[in-house]
Write a structure and sequence with these properties.
By secondary structure, the protein is mainly alpha-helical. It is built from 16 helices and no strands.
Length: 424
């Protein structure tokens, strides 16, 4: 590849992701959730392995586009599964655990990639990289197809009584059930809800850095003066820091009430600090700048917390799938823009890119704090209107009423259910 080819190969993935995001949200309503996700992982694995057969720029672009189409189902699907199995107070920690698979994979993936890069055969090492990872994912997709339940009600590893309890337990507080009915009123409510667009703005602004960092971090580190093999190894500590940010932030969100939005903002500021170190320090300070690259992935710790916000603070199954789709449209927009602000002529410092990333970090932190303020204001308004303070994390007095609503299978949005309170 040459010129802007590398940037476009990075961006085209997110065009596929973008186009498929809303159709995927409809599929989550219409099809069995577990089987649909497993099928998408299976298709994703096949396409990934086919990257090893790419022989030109056009073929690679087509494969990357299809890879984005099938990946568009994964994170929103896992978030919906989390909402079906766990209470809102548990969403942050549970989202953090499965999202930590990303950073854990980056740690071991970097080590495996280093080993694969030393393969000497008639097939290029980079082709083996795609083939091996594709085969591993294919095997795991079969495991998912067999064992991942569509909901607690058809979990084979639970007794009938346990299935019923597991189904009721998370829904007692949010009145939102898995349903195969697409509801136009919930769709329109999602479009009118300020939370939807504040989450969208946050997601775009936090993923412009992600798009650039994912695609160009290796090139940036190599620009510090390291060779290719050393660059692969130096990517592993950055992934380890990413794992720390994800697990520590989701643990703190679970430990301290009403802290999710604040923690997301803090993570953006940590990433802002790392970005400033890489951008502002001289070339001779390569180890300090490398430390900045390890601080930079803190922004990614905000992703599982934003999933948890949607899982806990958006009720109504159609509304939730719609907000998730809009969030991932923002995710795609940010990741499409990100690689495009890295101009080849500015390598390896990429001044314009880092200036844009600094602005995005500030905007993402600001938008998430505005979201928190809006939800806090809405909680206080509802308390005042109803003459009662309801703590969303301590609803003991609500149980009998909630049990009745659960038994009737009510699927209410957070606007319709006036006793709903936001977890911030």
């Amino acid at each position: 590849m040459e010129g802007t080819d590398y940037s476009w190969v990075s961006s085209i993935f997110y065009f596929g992701y973008l186009i498929a995001s809303y159709p995927a949200s409809l599929a989550f309503v219409k099809f069995p959730l577990g089987k649909f996700l497993a099928t998408c992982v299976l298709a994703w694995a096949v396409i990934l392995a086919c990257h090893g057969a790419a022989v030109n720029f056009g073929g690679l672009m087509a494969l990357r586009f299809l890879l984005g189409v099938f990946e568009s189902t994964i994170s929103p699907g896992f978030s919906l599964i989390t909402g079906l199995w766990y209470k809102p107070s548990e969403h942050a920690s549970r989202h953090g655990l499965w999202f930590a698979g990303n950073t854990t994979a980056s740690i071991f993936g970097g080590l495996i990639a280093y080993a694969i890069s030393h393969i000497s055969s008639s097939i290029s090492a980079w082709r083996w990289l795609f083939i091996i990872f594709g085969v591993v994912t294919f095997v795991w997709a079969i495991v998912l197809f067999v064992f991942l339940p569509d909901s607690p009600l058809n979990a084979r590893f639970l007794t009938p009584d346990q299935r019923s309890y597991a189904h009721r337990r998370p829904q007692q507080e949010i009145h939102s059930f898995k349903t195969n009915e697409w509801k136009k009123d919930q769709f329109l409510e999602a479009l009118r809800d300020p939370k939807t667009w504040l989450i969208f703005i946050y997601t775009v602004c936090s993923n412009i850095p992600n798009g650039g960092f994912t695609s160009f971090s290796g090139i940036i580190v190599r620009g510090f003066g390291f060779d290719t093999f050393t660059t692969l190894l130096l990517g592993m500590p950055g992934s380890a820091f990413g794992l720390f940010y994800v697990l520590s932030s989701t643990y703190l969100a679970h430990r301290f009430k009403y802290s999710r939005c604040i923690l997301i903002a803090v993570l953006q500021l940590i990433a802002l600090t790392g970005c400033t170190m890489v951008y502002a320090l001289p070339t001779s300070s390569k180890w300090v700048r490398l430390g900045g690259m390890w601080l930079f992935p803190a922004y990614a710790g905000g992703m599982p917390l934003s999933f948890a916000i949607i899982a806990s603070d958006v009720a109504g199954y159609t509304k939730k799938t719609t907000v998730l789709a809009i969030m991932f449209i923002g995710y795609c927009v940010g990741n499409i823009i990100g690689p495009q602000i890295f101009f080849a002529r500015e390598a390896p410092r990429y001044g314009s890119a880092f200036e844009g990333i600094l602005v995005c970090m500030v905007l993402s932190a600001t938008s998430i704090l505005i979201l928190r303020q809006y939800m806090n204001w809405e909680n206080k308004r509802r308390d005042q209107e109803q003459g009662v303070h309801i703590d969303p994390e301590a609803k003991g007095s609500e149980r009998s009423t909630q049990e009745h609503l659960v038994q009737t299978g009510l699927d209410e949005t957070d606007w319709v259910n006036k006793r709903f309170r936001y977890y911030l």
